């Protein structure tokens, strides 16, 4: 008999929800502090957010320069309202379409999984232990459907709340920039923390409650219970796909249109209020980079947890009904919330930001501190939450594992995430030579800029892939597929901090846009630009984390799928598997082509509309007339809603079609091919786009002598950099981030439908179908021979022989 965990079951049942509630309370506390910055003319209220902490003092630049403060604040409030209303309107429209899909796909889950046992309500022998009886397939179908809906709703809420927080904080960040860059940083970071903790804690709490409610019905049938729970991950990721693709198309259509006409043709600054696409561009930052990213990382967390729980349920944890050890993935996430809470205080309370150069190190320190403290946290959880020795399911056998080995599995994922983050920063930050080389290539025009940028993206893949490969090898060697799943959870354990620094970027970007549109002082714009430049790099780091964790999550789900579908080996020498590999490796290219063309088509309409307004509205360039912002917002909304459907259908239908017609072996090949291909493209696309963006900002900032020699704004090198940035926009904000959802979503969908594919899949290769074809051929032969009986007396014998 295997020993139980040191931590009693009762304490586990208390600790997990308590940690989740602590995370939610902390996020609300951060929101309360941000709300004390008033978007009104009340300076006293505005200056109450923290006294002299994190800034030189509370005097305003406008007071120093004699500008009317009241009108500036009113203008900020007006712009903030326009951005918030635009983002809310788009998300409501998107969620109406997504809601229809959610109901339709929930019905497919119920019908397909219910048909596995012919909609029988009788208990069946368990899949992994035929001596035991498990709940009927119809129950798995019903509970998987409920879990899918819960995951989908949680994902949608995560994205929507993130967007509301970001649009609440953008103008407040701008107003605090009047006092100091430190105060502006604190507001932006606290707002990011609200989203990070709310998402991490609510995802954990909903999953934990779902498990306990399902346990009332399933009782001791933990195999069936955690198989049904996989629907939670599918729901989270399917909503994330539409959020990422729809939001990405929206934001980049507006961004490309605004840049091409505004910066290059009309030579006006970024976020100039004369540009008709400027509101749509700022709305896009919130629906793409905030709402889409929130749903994406929630999906990763849900899938990693589900993959680990499925494997654990058929290991000694599940067989012996050791609830504490079974909840090890949830205990890691709970510890992560507490660690991220402490880490956040280092940025908001323990240290002050007094200069622009301190912003980026402060954000990087968040990653380092959270990783270091989390390493200790994982050691504690592994010691109290796991038996000293236990067994893990490993493709039909039980592998003996020690608790220190599982600790190393989680740590290798955690530290691999940090390495990927720093490599991403090296290749996308303009403080280092790769981006500076790309900027320098703009001397000879846009063509060399594009060549250098593509080369940088391809090169940036090398170290992250080695980091992922090493973490897979170590974690699989120690604890098979369960080790890979908890390594993915290790990478995502500091998700609250990761989301905080990721959401900080779009909030700062919006703050800069509001400062420009409100006609604020050039010194304020310099401060918001500094915040934005640091945010660009952190956004790239966030995408690196998302892609790295997606690779590990996808592999863990793949392992759970092949186990559940009864595939003992995936032999690449068999035709069934090799065709799957080829098709799977092609899918990320097909998907990227669809999303990039969608951005291009929408941007084309946007460019034409912006040009039309500049040419037909008298006084627009002079600033005496107001542009028609609403038309540009409508173009982005209509395009993104229409264009997000085909890529979404490609990802959602591929596993169903392949599994049903070609079987689980071919589907295994498709999943492996899409994983191997998709990770490379996603990393290179995200880093190429990030490098082009920061190369442009490097020239615009003109901090170093080298940068000054390439500038100023409007120079030929700067125009070449803007073209590179424009090309990179759909790469880094639409195709790249969406690809990590593709590889995860196809894997978790295959896992959910594995019972159906194992029972009814592969009809084209099915023995019964071949027998049917043989019988049909024989029948035709007999009919043909019978019709010729009168032609030769020997034919009756031939017909009888046939």
Automatic annotation (TrEMBL):
Q: How does it sit in the membrane?
A: Multi-pass membrane protein
What processes does the entry annotate via GO biological process terms? transmembrane transport
Q: Give the enzyme's EC designation.
A: 7.1.3.1
* Entry's transmembrane regions: 14-34, 97-116, 136-163, 184-211, 298-319, 326-347, 367-386, 406-427, 461-489, 545-567, 573-591, 644-664
Provide the Gene Ontology terms for cellular component: endomembrane system; membrane; vacuole
Its main localization is membrane
Q: Mind listing the UniProt keywords for this protein, alphabetically? A: Ion transport, Magnesium, Membrane, Translocase, Transmembrane, Transmembrane helix, Transport
Q: Which molecular-function annotations from GO does this UniProt entry contain?
A: diphosphate hydrolysis-driven proton transmembrane transporter activity; inorganic diphosphate phosphatase activity
Q: Which compartments does it reside in? A: Endomembrane system
Keyword Transferase carried by entry: no
Q: Which InterPro entries match?
A: PPase-energised_H-pump
PANTHER family with a match to the protein in the record: K(+)-INSENSITIVE PYROPHOSPHATE-ENERGIZED PROTON PUMP (PTHR31998)
**UniProt xrefs under NCBIfam families:** PRK00733.3-5 (NF001960), V_PPase (TIGR01104)
Protein name per Swiss-Prot or TrEMBL: H(+)-exporting diphosphatase
Origin organism of this chain? Brassica napus (Rape)
- What gene is behind this protein? BnaA09g56670D
